[in-house]
Structure formats: structure tokens, C-alpha cells
Amino acid sequence: MKTICIIPARGGSKGLPRKNIKHLAGRPLIDWPIKAALASGVVDRVFVSTDDAQIAECARAAGADVPFLRPAELAQDLTTTEATLQQALMAYEAHVGNTFELCVFLTATDVFRTPDWITQAVQALIDDPALDSAFAVHQTTKNYWHKTAAGDWARVLPWMRDYSSRQIREKLYREDTGLACASRARLWREGRRIGDRVHLMPNNLPETSIDIHTDFDLFLAEKAIEYLAEHHPERVPLFTDDRS
């Protein structure tokens, strides 16, 4: 199955200006998903969707294809990821004169992934034609609350009223599609990121909660990498050719 990886990276980020080319552990953030996709062994093309010439240049240097820039109207603060992925896929297919069957979504702000997660997501769709999407999730036992239409606070699920040890408590799973997500291309053409029949890839690694949108997030990511390098080198999100 022909598979494309699309990485959105606009130039107008507000919380951390120019975040997609900020350096983490000595290389631009945009490098991280590109290198992971290339190392996964399951992606035919890596395309970075950006409206910014400098980001495009960095992405090309890392091994991605950026034959054109994203339209400015799809690089606004309120532009949805779904709209970005839909336009990027269809414009790139028109550019190369070919269509793709599977799509991988990664972000430059989520870096604590391994290439194997991408491989697993794509392989899940190949192995089971009934699946729409496969993606990374973070496992948690925390309670969640929401405000009802009446303005009251309520637990998201009734069973959350029953407290117990986290070791035996029912688990919840937070979507982390920016870490690794594979979907059928038809969903993206419809403007959907993920479908209804899904395969989840759970983890409970604390570092996967770091999504870099502020200076503090970038600081945490740097410190996490330093800690992992000393205590859990197998979890450092660097690739074989980068490790000394």
C-alpha cells in the first residue's frame, strides 16, 4: 500500500514563535518527525505542509519533500488540522500524479516517539482491512470532569465516582495522534483525521505528555532527554545514526 507521511508545520506559531525550527538537542524540531518517518521503513513519501520558506528549507535538508508551500488561508490560528491534512494530501497527489492508500500524521511538537510506533500503526492497517485508523494513546487512571449544560460540574463517566488503587482502576486513553497516527487516505480526503474503527497503541511514558508549544515545554523536553539519556537511554528519541 502506498503510504505518505504528512507533517504540518506553519510559520505563524504564537505560543513559541518559530517553534518548528527551534532547536532541541541540537537540531530543529521539524527534523524529529521527518527522521522518525524515514526510519520507520513503511513510508513512501514524507511531505511537510508549511507556508514558510525557512521551514521548507529545513525540512528539505532533513530529507522531506516540500515542492510547494501551503496556501496562507490554511495557515491561520483557527485552521484545523483536518483541513490542513485534507488540502495537503489532495494537493500533493495532484502534484505527483498518483494517489496514496494510507496516510501518516506526525507533528514536530511531539518528539517522544520511536520509528517503531509509526511502523506498528501502518502495519495494523495493512493487517486488518476493517480498521480505519491506528494511533498512539497515553494510558491514565485520572478522573476527568466537565461542565454540564446546566452549569454544574460532573464526572465524565459514572464509574469515576468509585475510587480505588490506580493499579487496579479502569484505564482511560488520551489521543496522541501527533506522536504516531495512520489512517486510510479516504478519511483525509473527507476531512477526517481518524475513523471509527481504530487500533490504539497505549503507553504510560511520562515524557509523551510533553507537547512543545511554549518555552517551558521546550525546557522540559531538553531536561527529559538529559534524564532519559542517563537513566533510560533506550527511550531517548534519537536514531541509531545520531547516537554516539
Would you write up a description of this structure?
With 244 residues, the chain is α/β, with parallel strands linked by helices. It has a single domain (3-137, 174-242), classed as Spore Coat Polysaccharide Biosynthesis Protein SpsA, Chain A (Alpha-Beta Complex). It contains six helices and eleven strands. The strands form three sheets. Strands 1, 4, 5, 6, 9, 10 and 11 form a seven-stranded mixed beta sheet that branches. Helix 1 crosses helix 4 (115-127). The longest helix has 17 residues, at 215-231. The chain is globular, with a radius of gyration of 19 Å. The two termini are 35 Å apart. The mean pLDDT is 94. Keywords: Nucleotidyltransferase, Transferase. GO terms for molecular function: N-acylneuraminate cytidylyltransferase activity. This is Acylneuraminate cytidylyltransferase family protein.
